[in-house]
Design goal:
Length: 140
């Protein structure tokens, strides 16, 4: 939930003028208008961070289609009929600053062999954390 929604959901202390109280009552409405539920949004953020750690960051233009595919798991009555709007991915990035785009520079061909050890170590650390997740089970 973004900062504004959290503030609106907290309510107002006594003694605050009524026009301000009317604005504070919209917190539940803002939450109900979110495209993804909080746990679906957390799953999308976790996926984006994992892909980035594995060296394959997801482009901003594909994030709405990922969110739309996550909603396919809902019952048919709760599914949205359209993917989120064009500004939804940027709003997701604002709500979760850890997903901010990282700039990836091309590596000079003369140097690519010298930097592989640390990249391989990092990849095994990331994949090791993924494999330790109890949700991933060995299928025989």
């Amino acid at each position: 939930m973004d900062k504004a929604s959290r503030v609106l959901a907290q309510g107002v202390p006594p003694g605050v003028p009524k026009p301000y109280r009317a604005l504070a009552d919209h917190g539940e409405k803002a939450q109900s208008q979110q495209y993804l539920t909080p746990w679906e949004e957390d799953a999308v953020v976790k996926f984006l961070l994992q892909m980035s750690d594995l060296g394959q960051p997801v482009r901003m233009k594909f994030i709405p289609s990922i969110a739309f595919s996550v909603t396919r798991q809902r019952p048919k009555t709760d599914r949205p009929s359209k993917p989120p709007g064009k500004n939804w991915a940027k709003a997701l990035e604002n709500r979760h600053p850890e997903t901010q785009a990282r700039r990836v520079k091309a590596l000079d061909w003369n140097r690519h062999e010298k930097n592989t050890y640390t990249k391989i170590i990092h990849w095994f650390e990331v994949i090791g954390r993924v494999l330790q997740d109890p949700a991933i089970q060995l299928k025989l």
